[in-house]
Amino acid sequence: LILADSFYEWGISQGRKQPFRFQLANQRPFTMAGIWEAWTSPDGQVINTCAIITTGANELVQVIHHRMPVILSPENEQRWLKSGDRQLLRPYQASDMTCYPVSQRVNSPQNDDPTFILPLDG
Q: Among 52, 73, 43, 39, which residue's Cα sits nearest to residue 9?
C-alpha cells in the first residue's frame, strides 16, 4: 500500500504543460496499490524499491491523462495485501475525486514548498 493525499498529472493548458493535482473529494489520505521488491546492488547493498500500479483513467482524469494510479478503498486494502486481487485494478469513482491546476514548480524535486498544492488563480 502506498499512502498519499493526492497525485499529479500533466496536461496541456494554453499550449504548455500544466500540472494538475488530483485528490479525493473529501480531501482525506488514500492508499494506492503497489508492488515492491528488495534487490542487491552490485556493491552488495540491499535496495528496497516500489512502484505504483496504474489503470485506465476515470472520466475526471482522462481529460488530462489516459491512466491513473489504482486507488484502493479502505475495505479493499487487506484484500490487496493478502491476494493481490487483479479485480481491484480498476479506476476509482470519478465522482469521489476532484482536481485543479497547480504551480509548474511542483515539477522539480528541488522545490519543496507547501504552497505548491494550492490552486492556481484563475
A: 52
Q: Cα–Cα distance between 16 and 119 in angstroms, integer?
A: 17
Q: What integer is the mean pLDDT of 44-51?
A: 97
d(CA 18, CA 8): 10
Length of the chain: 122
Task: Mention every residue, 6+ apart, whose C-beta is less than 8 A from residue 24.
Answer: 30, 71, 96, 97, 98
Instruction: Judge contact between 50 and 2, C-beta under 8 A.
Output: yes
pTM: 0.90
Cβ atoms of 33 and 53 closer than 8 Å? yes
The helix (run of H) or strand (run of E) holding residue 46 is: strand 46-52
